[in-house]
Design brief:
This protein has 6 helices and 11 strands. By secondary structure, the protein is of the alpha/beta class. It has one domain: Class I glutamine amidotransferase (GATase) domain (Rossmann fold). Helix 2 packs across helix 3.
Length: 239
């Protein structure tokens, strides 16, 4: 079977720098990528899975929060990614959310965010680095545990916001030492995992590569099922 195609949403401003790194991780996992930005065509039926990438803050209008002056917003991207999360769930296609993408997965499914996460979680270690210098604890019994194990995980951190109330069908998959949510995942299929960190920068770490591999494998399985259904339909039509 050919490599599954993964649609990757990015910022219009900085996505040209980030997309090649995400695409490399997808390729190493056995997939291939196409970049999506707000204002251009992004058709879910043309891909086998999606990555909601990092970037600007999500508008608090989507979850009943209040706007803070430091927020940098992109309403068009918000609308695109929210639509894609809903369409992916309806089409049984897998989703990986990265940083902002983890937050969007939560918000699109009805959850809320802490806009000043470190103001709430004062015991959380505040880091701003692409290097793995922050520790998170994977929750037992989760999909993330099956992918990465239960040992404390060293990750990077480039965020100021975090998940507050969970969206429908999601559970906490990891927290940092101060209790802040660092990963969420869907309880049931289709595959949906959101991580607050940037695993694309940590492609040298086996546990981080497994996140992309899990997405690609879920996309491959979904594409195979779709091909089988189409083959059955063709056979029925020919009889």
């Amino acid at each position: 079977m050919k490599r599954p195609l993964i649609g990757v949403t990015t910022s219009r401003r900085s996505g040209w720098r980030i997309f090649p790194l995400v695409a490399l991780n997808v390729w190493l996992a056995g997939g291939r990528s196409v970049r999506w930005v707000a204002g251009r065509e992004a058709v879910l039926s043309g891909v086998d899975g999606i990555i909601i990438g990092g970037g600007d803050d999500i508008s608090p209008d989507l979850y009943g929060g209040r706007l803070i002056t430091s927020a940098r917003l992109d309403p068009d991207r918000d609308a695109l990614e929210r639509r894609l999360v809903h369409e992916a769930e309806a089409a049984n296609k897998p989703v990986l959310g990265i940083c902002r993408g983890s937050q969007m997965l939560n918000v699109a499914l009805g959850g809320t965010l802490h806009q000043d996460a470190y103001g709430i979680y004062t015991a959380s270690q505040r880091k701003w680095t692409i290097l793995p210098r922050k520790t998170v604890n994977v929750q037992p019994g989760t999909r993330l545990e099956r992918l990465a194990g239960t040992a404390p995980m060293k990750i990077n951190a480039l965020h100021s916001q975090a998940v507050d109330q969970l969206g429908e069908g999601l559970r906490v998959a990891a927290r940092d030492d101060g209790g802040m949510i660092q990963a969420v995942e869907r309880v049931h299929e289709p595959f949906a995992l959101g991580v607050q960190w940037h695993p694309e920068h940590l492609f040298y770490a086996r546990r981080q590569r497994r996140l992309f591999r899990a997405l690609v494998e879920a996309a491959r399985a979904g594409a195979r099922s779709s091909d089988q259904l189409r083959a059955v339909d063709r056979a029925a039509d020919s009889n």
